[in-house]
Design goal:
The protein is α/β, with parallel strands linked by helices. α13 crosses α14.
Length: about 350
């Protein structure tokens, strides 16, 4: 039986002076290839951009590990040879990143491979433990997400929430950090998380140069959504409500109260609210707020409009409501968001 891995606040793996930061990228049969290859490429490129005058020798030492070591095969069928067995990793680790994979692969790796026990045992002495995509389920089974905020691929967020009722699942985040535990969304989000680690370790200049070499956004931070709320709702809704979802997205500034929407759908308010929740997985009010937030993001990225105009055109009403929504949903101000993501070509 697994013990819930935990450690006192502030405890973290200690790196001896002059030693590299060892990053263990943990995979298994059926893992998703980019969950490992993406972060690995980021750390590898970062090594080339470290200052030559650094007083203390510093570099990332990358280790690809798997439960039994040797060759493993990714979910796409591409084999990866020469992985190290988890039991052979005796050296201190700075960061552990656990890949995700299809449900069948996750179930298989959780039975008799020793991976879950290894994660639970090594986590307390590791500075950072992270997952990519559905790797969050493995951290969850180990008890590492209890009482924390976390994310995963948007399509698996509801399942993670059901499995871990004490975990606050942030379904639309690129990545989430809570203490020394980090989780990221699907596939390429692991690259964003690795860039954030590089910036944390080496400073913004190294992270920027790494991002430029890899032709990546440096600042696709956790505040940016991994998917459109409208697309997610349309994917789940039946034909009748799918048209309503699309109409809401096209008219964020309209009266989108439940009475108005129910009248448009020719339903009672109670029936409409119940059907909307059942088909989209969210209440009408939450969906409307997410649509308006998405529109506000688009306007902040693409225009120089004053915040009051952005708020009005996105349906959020006032600059004060815009600011409250951004702080509650993203943890940043509208101006912070604009500074990070504004496009080079503005619309008037």
């Amino acid at each position: 039986m697994l013990r819930h891995a935990s450690r006192p606040d502030g405890a973290r793996g200690v790196r001896e002076h002059g030693t590299p930061r060892r990053v263990a990228l943990v995979a298994f049969e059926g893992f998703q290839l980019l969950d490992i290859a993406g972060p690995m490429e980021v750390f590898s490129k970062a090594n080339h951009h470290l200052p030559k005058t650094t007083a203390e020798p510093f570099r990332y030492e990358l280790i690809v590990a798997s439960p039994a070591g040797g060759a493993i095969t990714s979910s796409s069928g591409l084999p990866v040879a020469g992985t190290r067995a988890l039991a052979d990793l005796h050296e201190p680790l700075d960061t552990v990143i656990v890949a995700g994979g299809p449900e069948a692969a996750l179930r298989s790796v959780g039975t008799g491979t020793g991976l879950l026990d290894w994660i639970a045992q090594r986590a307390p002495g590791t500075r950072r433990v992270a997952s990519v995509c559905t790797g969050a389920f493995l951290l969850g089974v180990c008890g590492l997400l209890e009482g924390r905020r976390a994310t995963t691929h948007w399509s698996a967020a509801k399942a993670l929430e059901t499995m871990l009722p004490s975990t606050e699942v942030v379904a639309d985040a690129i990545f989430v950090g809570d203490g020394y535990i980090f989780t990221s969304a699907g596939v390429t989000a692991g690259i964003d998380l690795a860039l954030a680690f590089v910036e944390q370790d080496c400073g913004p200049a190294v992270a920027l140069n790494t991002a430029r070499e890899l032709v990546l956004y440096l600042r696709r931070v956790g505040g940016q959504s991994q998917f459109s709320a409208s697309l997610a709702a349309q994917a789940n809704a039946a034909d009748g409500l799918r048209a309503m979802v699309a109409w809401i997205e096209e008219h964020p500034e309209a009266d989108l109260s439940v009475p108005a929407l129910a009248g448009r759908a020719a339903m009672s308010e109670r029936t409409f609210a119940r059907a909307f929740l059942a088909e989209t997985g969210m209440t009408p009010a939450r969906f409307v707020e997410l649509v308006r937030l998405d529109r506000a993001k688009q306007l902040l990225e693409a225009t120089r409009w004053p915040l009051a105009r952005v708020a009005h055109c996105s349906g959020l009403g006032s600059a004060a409501t815009l600011a409250r929504t951004f702080r509650r949903r993203l943890g940043i101000t509208p101006q912070d968001y604009r500074d990070r993501f504004r496009l080079a070509v503005d619309r008037s």
